[in-house]
Amino acid sequence: MTNRFKLSSIAIALALGCQTTYAIADEQATKKHQGEVEKIVVTGTFSGKSVAKEEASFAISSFSVDDIKKLAPKSTADLFKAVPGIWAESSGGVSGANVFVRGFPGGGDAPFLTVQLQGAPIFPPPTLSFLENSTLFRLDATVEFMEALRGGPNPVLSNGQPGLTTNFLLKEGSEDSEGLIKYSTSDYGLQRIDGVFSGELADDLYFMVGGYIKSSPGVRDAGFNAEEGKQFTINLTKQLDNGKINFYTRQTDDHGVWYLPSPLQVNTVDNEYTQIGTKNRQATIQYGADNHSETFDFGKGRGWDGSVSGGSVDLSLPGNWQLVDRFIYTKGDADTYGLVPNGDAVTLTSVANNGSNAWGAVTGDEYSGDTLVQQIGRWVVKKQIEAFTNDFALTKTFDKGTFTAGFYHSTFEAKDWWALGNQAYHVIESGGEMLTGIDCNDNGTFVFNEDGSPSLDDNGEQEWFDGCGWNYDINSIGDGETQALYAALSYNVSKELTLDIGLRSENHQIEYTVDEGLNGKISKSVSYDETELAWTVGANWMFTKKQGLFARISNGSKMPFFDDFRDNYGAYQSGEDLIKEVTQYELGYKMASDNYELYATTFFNEVKGDTFVRQPGAPAEILTNEAYGIEIDFNYYNDNGFSVNLNSTIQETEITESPANQGNEAQRQPSWQVRVTPSYDLEFDDGMYATIYGTLSAVGDRYANNENTVTLDGYEKIDLGIIFNLTDEVQMQFAVNNLTDEDALTEGDPRDSLSSNGRYILPRTIDFSVSYQF
């Protein structure tokens, strides 16, 4: 039997009794030691060369293509749930996740996450408002594996991310031509075709092409094809006598509805509720000083329409020198169209003009006074981004270790146009329509003084009043540049003990202007230039061949990007540098044997100078946060086809400095979480085989806000699946997500923590696919 894999967090595995070869960096990992599984990682090494996982002096998890298949993630961020130390909220849909790392503070998005492709960051700013890195990357059959590095040498490498760096590597071609085509469907109407093909173009020149096209009404039925996407990837590799050259491009156009918090106090609302529908996907809003009107399609949701292209040069040079240069160029649109709840549900009688009823703006139907309604904001965010990054490193290998010196350079740009707010009362039902017969729904109005003269704002423009709530409109342009010199030394004190040290000096420049109000006047202007030093020191002691300890201390920074200046403009003007300083301590134990492996990492970190903004335009809370805990990644597998993975995190967080919340726990993050994933292989007499697998996820209570006044209850979730191999070429997969249809919450209302709104985890779904491999 061939191509059987265990479900565990490994990037490369040689299954018991068979041999499978993966391309890792410039090497082919083909080691097998009497049934022992060999794990190889490439992320986190200063030289970029692969090392055995148990010999790494940092905490890293890896996921092969078969691991990803069994996890069946609904989005890229959904995959991050399997990484110890990470709390990922992927309930917002295909884009727009919230990812938290080891108790680091945050109110949403993913400020301490970098997503790499082929070892280079897709977009240097980890988070901008309405854009986090996972939005820019879509999983498909062209991905070979993913690695997730927490803490460790992160502050010195790549874009200096102190938190989590995830690195996706693409499949490469070989001398043998091979391919796969897969059809997927689901109980929510998904139609998807994936394909990948690879082979040899000429001597030592290999190719891989692949992608997908898909369409569905969405996990929560919107009544129309709310999730649509396509992607195409080309990866070319030229093998040289002393290394290789790689080029790739990835073209993506994929979007889906932005799922938002639901009114929890309404008994007809459950985990299948969504604000969007055919009666409200098109809406006309007013924005700017002249109250211009425009109609938008809010069914577009959130997504990415752009390209990511790049490559690398990896050469072994005379004198034990190695040259590695990675480059990447990203350009496209990451727009957001959302129906955002504003406040609690109310009865129609409390807002109707006549105090009793109102009418549907689309259907004309009359709604009685006891109808429950809610303000829904029609938010529009148009975001154009562009970035180019180059990371060059030279490594010298000595008898006792290595020395690496490198230069990192990136330029990045974001052009934003926002029209936020635009509230109007809608009927509370999935796709509920807007109503007429309510003043603020029907018309906004200019504001006049008592004598009848126009009331002017601070800019001399006549004030506009929207009776249903606030508006926040901006037009901004931001340009940034980061240059960093870094160096690292690894020294083998003995065969068992290795020490390493890394330093990074980073210069960070930002030019940013904002027109708040869309009145053609610049209200905020930034010219920023700061240099910061990051460092890491680590030790690795392998007291047996497959068992060891590591210890590491690091200090790094999250540099400010465009939104940090907009939200903290007063602090910037008063001379604050807005740099978030991150100090981390780690102690890890690792052990690998013939049929089990254990990786346990304790951590303590402190983040100073973090800022939290409840919603754009609101004042910022500046705080210091501490956290400590332990991450456990345990895998067991035997010759009878049984395997199990245990992934667990226990942590304590505390806000140690804050104007009002000192002593509280960090919002949104559970004090414990655990995932248990068993898998069992079944063989049949005719040569067919099947793999039955499942995952039990359990998480503890969390607070929805820094004030710790709103508690989100813990929950358990069960996923099940079976992969059935009819032949060596034909495979079917059946997967059930959230088997018991648990209606737990991932968050409250981040814009109004006192409201009775919350976002559910995704409801039960059933997915089926059939693939043919040739």
TrEMBL record:
Q: Which organism does this sequence originate in?
A: Thalassotalea insulae
Query: Which range is the signal sequence, renumbered to this chain?
Result: 1-25
Q: What is its main location?
A: membrane
Q: Where in the cell is it found?
A: Cell outer membrane
List the protein's name.
Answer: TonB-dependent receptor
Q: Which InterPro entries match?
A: Beta-barrel_TonB, Beta-barrel_TonB_sf, Plug_dom, Plug_dom_sf, TonB-dep_rcpt-like
Domain TonB-dependent receptor plug stretches: 53-158
* Gene that encodes the chain: fhuA_2
Q: Which residues form the TonB-dependent receptor-like beta-barrel domain?
A: 391-739
